[in-house]
Every structure is written in C-alpha cells, then in structure tokens.
Amino acid sequence: MSISLHIRKKLDTFVLDVSFDSRAKRIGILGASGCGKSMTLKSIAGIATPDGGKIEADGRVLFDSASKINIKPQKRRAGYLFQNYALFPTMTVAENIGAGLRCGKAEKAERIGKMVEKFRLQGLEQRLPAQLSGGQQQRTALARIMAYEPDIILLDEPFSALDMYLKDRLQRELAEMLEDYEGTVIMVSHNRDEIYRFSEELLIMDQGKIEVCGKTEEIFADPVSRTAAGLTGCKNFSRLLRTGAHTALALDWGVSVLTEKKEIPEDAEWIGYRAHDFIPVWGEGGVNMLKFEPESSARLPFEHNYYIKAEETVCWFVQRERLKEIEEKGCPDYLKLSEEKMLFLK
Asked: Which of 127, 145, 246, 294 has the most CB atoms around its CB within 10 Å?
C-alpha cells in the first residue's frame, strides 16, 4: 500500500501546504493544535476539498484538481475514526457496525457477526453507545470502519479525551486489533508518546507545513529542527555559536561545546538537550559541562525535576534509579552533556 499526497488549501489566513509520499503501513502525524493535522486527514477522506493538488492511495487517484477528479467520501475506501468516535446515538452496537454496509441482508448480518467477534463485542450487540464504556465505544467505531473493508484507516486524535490509564489500555488494544490489517493507517496526534508507540514513519507538522519527515526512531534521535525537537519532547535549547567543525558555544547556558566524533553542522543555530540525558559530575568542571545551580525543583512520584539557573532555564529530570546516588553523594557540581545526546538544530 502506498499513499501520495500533494495538496494546498487556504482557510482565512491559514495555508495548508502538504507534500509527502510513503509506502509505510503505520504513519504518524505529530504537531501542535491548529497546525493542520486534522485538515490533512479530512482531505484524504474527502470530507474537506483542497484548493489544488493530488491525492493517490495505492495508485488510485482520489483527488486531482488538474484533472477535475474528486471521488466522493463513501467511494474512497477510507475509514475515518473521529476523536469522539461519532457513533449514532440511537443505533445499537450491531446497527452502528452495519450502518455503512451496502449489501444483502444475509451478507450484512454475517459481516456484523464477524466484526462483533473480532472486536470482542459479544453480548453488547443491542446496547446503545451511551451504555458502553470508552473502550467499548472505540471498539464499536473501529468495527464499523473495518466492516466496510477500507484500504486506508485515518485516526484523528483517538485518545485525546481519555485519562492516562484508559489511554494506555486502549492504545494497546488498538495496536492488537490492527495487527492483521494490511492497509495503511495514519494517526494524527499532538502526543509524542502515542506517535512513537504507533508509527514506523513520522511527519512533523508546523503551521500547515511538514517540518520534518522520515523514520520515527531516526527523527526522535535527530529531529534536525528546533520545532521538531520540541514536539518530540526536548525541553532544553540554547542559541549556538559555531566556532569550528568540532567546537561551539551554547550561548544561553554559558557552556563550551566540544565534539570528538561528530561534526557540528555549519547551519546549526541551536543546540538541544533532553532533560533526562544529563550526566551528574562531582568535582572539577570542563567543556560540555553546565554548573549545577538549581533555582527550583519538584519531587514527583517517579522522578525529581531540577530547574537550573541560566539565561534560559535548564531542566534536569532525575529518574528514580538515579535518585539514590544523589541522596548518597549530594547534589552534583556540574551536569555533563554527552556528545551522543547533543542535538544540533536549525
């Protein structure tokens, strides 16, 4: 399965201008609220019409402004899972699952039965959506989509309204239910953990455009831009003054940066560093070290967060396994930046 998307759409002062091609089965779109994630999904589904461009799914043209092709949503073979699941409130579970099917009565009943079994909804067939738990509603909505046998499934922030415990359980359930689905699944979210867990390929969007795209693990390891680094969870940024191929100054931290293995890119304007990756140092300071001068701290159930004085406050998040060392030795004198964990960003 492949997806090709090259579209442009203007909404008042906002412009969506997205272009990507992928053969991945699980694609994530990560971005802040209002960046155009949902509009991208709606354009694929046919719910929204771009001003121009082309959309192809597995070689089948769904939209092409130049050729005046715009396949109706119900004929695009795209299943759309909305944030609130969009179940029909006056229809039972069985009726909801069969709502989009266009086939004979016997075939319809057989397909509903298969979906009820696949999504573990036995005994709930005659219940209304209001009588279901959040997980049961999600399974019903997904069963309705899968009964339609779509070529592509679009998930629009499917866990945004759930508490942490339920979110974790439903993420695992969704992954299990989609295990044997051979088509493409695209999920949009502003939650980096959801996206990392779900996707093999990732698009990071900002203000209607794709900031970075590629393999999910590679983007988290090297986000390339400050915007992408922030969206993947990096908390610490400093302006960077490059003084050589392997030397620089982190201006907002007052830190001299020295690399031995990797070159500092010529176009790097920022250095980023994740809050969990600092190495505590007791004793003398040196290059790649930030003086430990906490201005505040917060003790959480599983980690202790320190906020270090600098022109731009630096966050150091100490996880439980390291807390014992801090308790025994006292606070460190410096925090060291590991070369492998430095992010050089545009």
From this structure: 145
